[in-house]
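Bench log. Compound arrived from synthesis this morning; before running ITC I wanted a structural hypothesis for how pyridoxal-5'-phosphate sits in the protein. Inputs:
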Amino acid sequence: MLYTSTRDKNVLVSSAQAIAQGISVDGGLFVPTEIPAIDKAFIDSLVPLDYISRAKKVLSLYLTDYTEEEIAYCVEGAYKAGKFSSEKVSPVKKIEGGANILELWRGPTCAFKDMALQLLPYLLTTAAGKTVKDKTIVILVATSGDTGKAALEGFKDVPGTKIMVFYPNDGVSPMQKLQMTTQAGENVAVCAINGNFDDAQNGVKKIFTDEAVKAKLNENGMMFSSANSINWGRLVPQIVYYVSAYCDLIENGTIKNGDEINVVVPTGNFGNILAAYYAKKMGIPVKKLICASNANNVLTDFLKQGVYDRNRSFFTTTSPSMDILISSNLERLLYHLTDESDETIRKWMGELSKDGKYEVCDKVKAQLSDLFDAGCCDDDETAATIKATYDEGYLSDTHTAVAIKVYDEYKKATGDMTETVIASTANPYKFSAAVLKAVKGEVPADADEFEQVDLLRETTGEPCPEQLATLKGKAPRFTACCNKEEMVDTVYAMLGI
Ligand SMILES: *Cc1c(COP(=O)(O)O)cnc(C)c1O
């Protein structure tokens, strides 16, 4: 199977090239030229298997230039016993009111990004072995919180790689900051920058595209790559868990093979819900893809009206991983919905970067309303949902609560009682302050991060994941903070060049 660019159909590369390169030279994203089909018999064959075996079968449909042994090596390394706190890797739990919660946060950093970022380093180093032999891969990440930690944990001590993460000094939660600054590993570095997330992101983009920097790395046998969610190697692992969740529902008797399900996803960059779209196109019978947003509801408006308009206020919410105004992965969906018209994508993406706005054609609008439903909720509704869901027996984080709320509204509006999977994207202890406030009504004003963790544990009796609990009192290893002009020199210093 070959991959092409959403902005230039003449591009044709293997999956290894797409993963090693990250983004196409024309600025487009890599997409498969055809979406592999699976049938009922294939799904039946997956049902008795464990997550690792299911992943091997699904991934081999997309990564056709990886050998069977290579895929086995990658998948077994990523999801081996002990890495995830559930032997099912991403278990499905039924909650009061009937929905099935797909817990995607059982990995080392307690956020769903582990599902992809545990596998990506294996896919990337294997790809590099095929395409750019003998080079050290340098991963640069700008993060607003969850991605940085998940990438550090994924690339920690992976031979042939180095990783450096920049985060805004005042732009991440105390827990997220501690998670990063205490990171172990010989090939990792973390640096705060004086500025906000956009400064960090722009700085990293500038370094990536600077020819002089590229040349200097090249002289030293190194090359940049990206762990960003636009990399196909981050998207393809996410398709697996939707297929696997469908198998789990068959296995536990909730549905029969062939029955339809709905999927609800708390959405930011549109990667997670796009993976569900691919699963549907492959043959998983998904009735509606329900896109849940917080107060930054640019996607709700887009999916309902067909107009993408980022010219609006930006809100800082209690679900920060969804505070985003440009959802990069939407470009891939639009490419498929326009019958692979690279010309149309160039036009719309050009309008987006020039005017911050574009409107899709009627044909795409019709498909959007057929495939998707969408909704949004604010922080008060998120808190009320955490409380109500907790009272019914399930403690959710803020992002998951947004999805639960949007699903409730969907059910009320449509009366649709189809079995539904809700993607749960973070452990509640990652966002202790907001979750505690929602459950308890108030938080002592002077309580620090770990006192809040203790209070949440006392209040709910839910265990706090060990990797978060043991951060308490750990001394930070990376304390440097630089100005954005100094980022290149910081990278050189880390690489010793
Ligand atoms: C990244 C993230 C999201 C958003 O996922 P996208 O794939 O960017 O849509 C939602 N919840 C949490 C906790 C996240 O870390």
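What the model suggests: The pocket of pyridoxal-5'-phosphate is lined by residues 111-113, 146, 229, 266-272, 321-322, 399, 425-426 (CB under 6 Å). The CA atoms of residues 235 and 275 lie 6 Å apart.
ITC booked for Thursday regardless.
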